[in-house]
Amino acid sequence: MAQVSWGIIGPGAIAQNFADGVAQAPSARLRAIASRSGARRKAFGDLHAIADDMRFDDYAALCAAPDIDAIHITTPHPFHAELALMALRAGKHVSVEKPAGLNAAEVTVLVEAAAQENLFFMEAYMYLLHPQIARMIEILKSGEIGEITHIRASFGFNAPFDAASRLYDPALAGGGILDVGGYPVSAARLIAGIDEGAFANPVSVTGTGVLAQTGVDAVAYGLLKFANGITAEVACAVARNMDNTIHVTGTKGSLTLPDPWVPGRNAGPSDTTIQVTVAGETREEHLSHPEMLFKFEAEAASQAILAGQVELPYPGMSHLGSIGNTAVLDQWRGAVGYKTFAEKDGARRILARCIPSGLPTVPSVTVKDVPNLMSRLVMGCDNRDTLAQGAIVWDAWMDAGGNTFDTGFVYGGGLHEAVLGQWIKSRGVARDITVIAKGAHTPYCTPRAIEAQLDISLERLTLDHAPIYIMHRDNPDVPVGEFVEALARLKDKGKIGIWGGSNWSIERFGQAVAYANAHDLPAPRILNNNLSLAVMTKPVWDGCVTSNTPQTLEYLRENNVMHLSWSSQARGYFLPRALRDRLPEDTRPETCYGSPENAERRRRARELAATYGVSAHNIATAWVLGQSFPSFALIGPRSPGEIASTLPALDLELTQKEVAWLNLEA
Question: Which of 65, 226, 345, 599 could be stapled to 192 by a disulfide with Cβ–Cβ 3.0 to 4.6 Å?
């Protein structure tokens, strides 16, 4: 019988449980252990009869071991994502204890890495694989208790306070929500999504709790609401005993799991009971299972690996289930008031290996009067709300060769500039990167507003000047010369370098150039309009201007004007339908770019993509970069995986004939 050879990193209590589960699983066998503690490594190896040459003191060595198929990670929380990435990039299937990452952004990276490497990845919620969960689903779907209306789930225990223990130490991401809060949250999401056979994401998350002296959550209570009207109460604690049950209320009755989380954790049997109450009458189902709890998890994971699957089937924790679960934990912690060390101002948590190897790096060029190089792709910074979210993307961006960042005074009401500034300061990269600052957005698009907004932006960004400054909008009611003079004063003060306009017409841009030249003032050098292979048919936002018109393209070509295109990838218009339909209805690609002409452009992009062995999305990006004038593409990836999916475009050098053909110009 085929078996998966497992290695374990971190020989703690859960590792012992998993090893015992592997011993009972027909499809699995334990071959290796890695620990930096010689004593723990020996004790674990002796207990489980692991060969001496398969006892590693180095995690990377275990990941590189050719005889190991899969790795289970049981270290403290802060090391889960780092080690899971190490194992995945080494070609190993991965099971990692919960939480898989300290936040949803980290878990997203793991899911992306598994997909990139075509490997199995599982966040190890072992209780989901116990047969009582499948039986619970059968009962709930049968309609015996009617339509589900409310869920109550809790997991709490009372551990004596010890500031140095992993449960209370903020350096180890302690607290109840990250330690056991994922159990009740995953149960609520599982039950709320039963009709769809997937974990449902709540539309609202609120909560309260009590923080320990160390700042981690000691006790936490949360309220979830789902789009289908189901509500849920969740609770967890490391400093308070709770009933540790799942209770589901329906229109006809209720269902209770008295022992949902750890039946038979340390040894079999893992017998359980399900209680169903209808019309005041309660019946009990007794489920007998001689196996210990972790056998079901080890067997399910091993069978999935042997079958070539990259994730567990329902009701196991899926990839999207893990991302959604951690997103709820993020919101719950926010409501309680607990930030992990990765989310605090100044944090320097850096995950390596977020970008897969073998991809092209982002090229950079010299731009006159800009001190640092400027990458041809530019990172848009209008979608990261916390340092933890932003750091993962921006660290990966630097790893990929990118060094240029675009931000704006109005993004996130100023939050996004501030988050980028936190990252710049914590990484110490102010002298290594190029930041494009934007201000003067409607209705504050006046010469007088520019300097006041710029000063605020620079303070948020922790910079003393903006090497590139772009007016976010034009105001035709203001004589163009007033803008030129205002920006010249800022340049004289050393607050900006070169400047330009976003969503400006070529007529106004040309007038600004003429005025500046006539008065010996710095002229605008960069136009920042939408330029994508798909022509914008409905403005994404009020006041938006496209540069993909014959007149504008001719102007840019004849005058060799530097152009920075926003929405250079047409909001995903060239992606497969399932991916491009994720945005809100009013700004979806088909809403803003749908037309017969663009459909033909997409068809041609797909045709050319097949020739080059890339995606149509890559062809669209290469089209922007392939213009005969200096053309830069602004992209807005929300994860390292979205960066990685763009990079193959950089190996393409489209001919001018191909550029014209794609745009229906020939």
Answer: 226
Helical packing angle, 319-336 and 104-117, nearest 10°: 170
CA 159 to chain centre: 33
- What DSSP line would sit under 103-166, residue for residue? SHHHHHHHHHHHHHHT--EEE--GGGGSHHHHHHHHHHHHTTT-SEEEEEEEEE-BPPP-TTST
User: By the 8 A CB rule, do 468 and 499 touch?
Assistant: yes
Place of tokens 């005074």: 409
Q: Kind and range of the H or E element at 470?
A: strand 466-471
Determine the Cα–Cα distance for residues 618 and 637; give it in Å rounded to an integer: 14
- Give CA separation, 147 vs 3, 138, 192, 196, in Å: 42, 13, 11, 14
What's the pLDDT at 452? 96
Give tens-digit pLDDT for 471-481. 999 999 999 99
Per the document, the length of the chain is 666
Handedness of CA 475, 478, 479, 483 (dihedral sign): negative
Three-state SS at 118:
coil
Q: Return the DSSP state at 120.
A: -
3-state SS class at 643: helix
pLDDT class of 586 with cuts at 50, 70, 90: confident
- The burial class, CB within 10 Å (0-12 / 13-18 / 19+), for 666 is exposed
* Cα 311 to Cα 321: distance, rounded to the nearest angstrom: 10
pLDDT at 656: 96
CA distance 245 to 187: 10
How far is Cα 421 from Cα 387, in angstroms, rounded to an integer?
9
Query: Quick check: helix, strand or coil at residue 61?
Result: helix
- Give the HSE-up count for residue 372: Cα atoms under 13 Å, Cβ half-sphere: 19
Amino acid at 311: E
Alpha-carbon distance of 475 to 447, in angstroms, equals 10
Burial label, 286 (beta-carbon count in 10 A; 0-12, 13-18, 19+): exposed
Angle between helix axes 387-399 and 104-117 (nearest 10 degrees) is 40
Q: Using a cut of 0.90, tell me whether the model's pTM lies above it.
A: yes
Query: In whole angstroms, what is the distance from residue 542 CA to residue 594 CA?
Result: 18
Q: How far apart are CA 626 and CA 624, in angstroms?
A: 5
Mean pLDDT of the chain: 96
Looking at residue 592, its pLDDT comes to 93
Coil, helix or strand at residue 615: coil
Q: Is the dihedral of CA 566, 571, 573, 579 positive or negative?
A: positive
pLDDT of 100 strictly over 80: yes
**Range in 340-354, 357-371, 473-487, 548-562 the model is least confident about:** 340-354
> Which residue, among 544, 565, 571, has the nearest Cα to 553 in the 3D structure?
565
Query: For residue 107, what are the CA distances in angstroms to 25, 387, 431, 580?
Result: 27, 15, 31, 22
- Determine the number of helices (DSSP H) and then strands (DSSP E) in the chain: 22, 24
Task: State the DSSP H helix or E strand holding residue 56, giving kind and residue range, or none if neither.
Answer: strand 55-56
Which pLDDT does position 223 carry in this prediction? 98
DSSP state of 512: H
Which whole number is the average pLDDT over 322-340?
98
Q: Which phi and psi (to 5°) does residue 431 adopt? A: -90, 0
Rounded CA separation 546/539 (Å): 8
Confirm if 567 and 535 have CB atoms less than 8 A apart. Answer: no
